[in-house]
Amino acid sequence: xxxxxxxxxxxxxxxxxxxxxxxxxxxxxxxxxxxxxxxxxxxxxxxxxxxxxxxxxxxxxxxxxxxxxxxxxxxxxxxxxxxxxxxxxxxxxxxxxxxxxxxxxxxxxxxxxxxxxxxxxxxxxxxxxxxxxxxxxxxxxxxxxxxxxxxxxxxxxxxxxxxxxxxxxxxxxxxxxxxxxxxxxxxxxxxxxxxxxxxxxxxxxxxxxxxxxxxxxxxxxxxxxxxxxxxx
Length: 232
Known about the structure:
Elements: E1 2-6, H1 10-23, E2 28-32, H2 35-45, E3 49-52, H3 61-68, E4 76-80, H4 85-93, E5 98-101, H5 106-120, E6 130-131, E7 134-136, E8 142-145, E9 148-151, H6 154-165, E10 171-172, H7 173-180, H8 186-200, E11 210-213, E12 217-220
Parallel strand pairs: 1-2, 1-3, 3-4, 4-5
Antiparallel strand pairs: 6-7, 7-8, 8-9, 10-12, 11-12
Helix pairs in contact: 1-5, 2-3, 4-8, 6-8
């Protein structure tokens, strides 16, 4: 497995390298110290996952993430000193799979990457099913509504797949968070649900498929339903 770290702080890079050496020695760690060089390596080195800082010397990590999402759904974990809610929401909105604040616990970083890797390669995923006008393509990032393609991020696809497979049953936020991230992550759920509604609903403010109990959980209804809730 190859993991690319895009980080301009040499000390942070060394800590990450030591973490992998001690906890996951089979991983080959690739390094880039700027946004532009990182983008080039994403295309040429073909990493399996990316660790990305926001405060880079040339272009911001947000812009790097935005450009990556134009051509790739590789797992991206943000590793940054910024801990404001607005920063977390922005990163998730651009398609980040996870967000970790410095100073970080080394084994936690490895655990999060392993969790993402397990989800992406889970043998439990069976995409051969239809849910109303929806069906998946060859992965959870490729959704079709009435045979029209809709591009999802990895996290969006995993959340939607889980809710679709639970068709008609409310799933609590805590259950969704544990299934996707292995920890409580209400804000991440809320952001991704909003993006999913924007992509799959005819009227995101009055959803017919992706329904919620405010503050508690969500349900996917395969057929149109008049019982939609508008809040998230």
